[in-house]
Amino acid sequence: MYNFKIKLNEENLIHNYEYLKNSKQKEILAVLKANAYGHGIEPIAKILSKNGCSYFVVARLYEALKIFNLKLSNVKVLVLESIENFEDVLENENLELAVNSYQDLNRYLSNGIKPNRLHIKLEFGFSRNGIEIEKLEELVRIINQEHITFKGIFTHIFAANYEDSLTLEKNFREVVSKVGVENFEIIHLQNSAGILMIENDISTHLRCGILLYGLQELGFYDENLKQVFSLEGEVGGINQIEGKKYIGYDLQKDLQMDEYKYIAKIKLGYGDGFSKKNCNSKCIINNKEFRIVQVSMDTTFVAVDSSVKVGDKVSIFKDLKVASSHLEMPPYEFIPMINERIPRVIGFKN
Q1: How would you list the strands of the sheet with 288-295, edge to edge?
Q2: Would you say 79 and 97 are in contact if contact means Cβ atoms under 8 Å apart?
Q3: 165 with 125: CB under 8 angstroms?
Q4: Nearest-angstrom CA–CA distance, 241 and 263
Q5: Is residue 77 within 8 Å of 96, Cβ to Cβ?
Q6: What is the mean pLDDT of the chain?
Q7: CB within 10 Å: which end of the chain, N or C, has fewer?
Q8: Residue 253 main-chain phi, psi, to 5 deg
């Protein structure tokens, strides 16, 4: 009772998926890493699969196994990080792997993983992983001498700067042409900002992460995308604070209660991934803003007036731009912090 949930707007998710797919005229590789950016990997996969998405991308193997455990039909999953245990990979032909180094390539092939399940990642100076462009000749040799064709080739646009991103796209195009476009079934490179700002014709698919969820980066905004996420619950209790020295673990005099004489308690705390940095931010109760004065492990305390009652609806992070400004981090950082103590539900439609 009075618990919080992350509610997913199914219509908005479908709208974003179809809008991105149709506006770019390319199939979507839907990125579901980090618990679908905090939205819930299982419900997001179910909604997208039901609406025609058959290709998912995750960071780690256990995320892929979560998707396969849903028993969705005709779904493929690409794992971006290198793996060591091949048992689950060999058992599932629809599980594909990113090749982040020549060591990866040798291990995967020697363990019986076919090239048509491998995506070659190229490294253009991101200082992360991938085959470095300076060592590309070995890949050309392997393809030519062993007559290998791979499932895919990709990189990641790491620059928010428009000119740098254009340069990276140009370099990627030249490298893929050198290696041979015909040696890859799937080609993908853009991050979400890159999807919005670069018209790229060498890519066969769009690898979409935050845009699917209506989350957008500062400086890259598309008004057609709609927010999927909401964090909602109810007021669990009301305490009158007059004459009380403490509110939770803090002295009342330190919490700047101003004219407010009541505290509303809600079942959300840093044990749920709701950071103490949310203190002094605002939540919405009865269409009115109220200030969060304290966050404990299991409970958050809100300064309210006499209009607020037990059971009233509470909305957290209603305006993601305001929340981002207060927390000094983008939504794709603080939403995944909300852990699995808070259930994800397909909560409503428009």
Answers
A1: 237-240, 262-266, 300-304, 288-295, 282-285, 313-316, 229-234, 5-9, 344-348
A2: yes
A3: no
A4: 7
A5: yes
A6: 89
A7: N
A8: -65, -20
Q: How many CA atoms lie within 13 A of 10 on its CB side?
A: 13
Total domains present in the chain: 2
| In a shared domain, residues 29 and 166 | yes
Distance CA 124, CA 132 (A): 7
CA distance 236 to 312: 8
Residue 327 CB neighbour total at 10 angstroms: 17
- Is residue 209 domain-resident? yes
Q: Of 187, 213, 239, which one is at a domain's C-terminal end?
A: 213
In a domain, 1, yes or no: no
pLDDT of residue 192: 65
List Cβ neighbours of 59 (8 Å cut-off, separation of 6 or more). 33, 34, 79, 80, 81
Q: Which residue has the tokens 């808070």?
A: 342
Alpha-carbon separation of residue 238 from 92, 261, 312 (angstroms): 53, 10, 11
Q: Which two tokens stand for residue 292?
A: 């969060």
Contact indicator for 324, 331 with CB cutoff of 8 Å: yes
pLDDT of the residue at 164: 74
User: Between β-strands 150-154 and 184-188, what pairing exists: parallel, antiparallel or unpaired?
Assistant: parallel
Q: Angle, nearest 10°, between helix axes 41-50 and 61-68? A: 50
Confidence of residue 166 (pLDDT cuts 50, 70, 90): confident
Using only C-alpha atoms, what is the Rg of the chain? 24
**205 is in which domain, residue-wise?**
10-213
Going by C-alpha positions, the residue among 82, 88, 44, 35 that lies closest to residue 65 is: 88
Whole-number percent of the chain with pLDDT over 90: 70
HEC-encoded secondary structure of 70-89: CCCCCCEEEECCCCCCCHHH
Distance, in Å, from the CA atom of 201 to the CA atom of 20, rounded to the nearest integer, reads 15
State the alpha helices, DSSP H only, in the chain. 10-24, 33-37, 41-50, 61-68, 87-91, 102-110, 136-146, 162-179, 192-197, 320-327, 331-334
The pLDDT score that the predictor gives to residue 197 is: 62
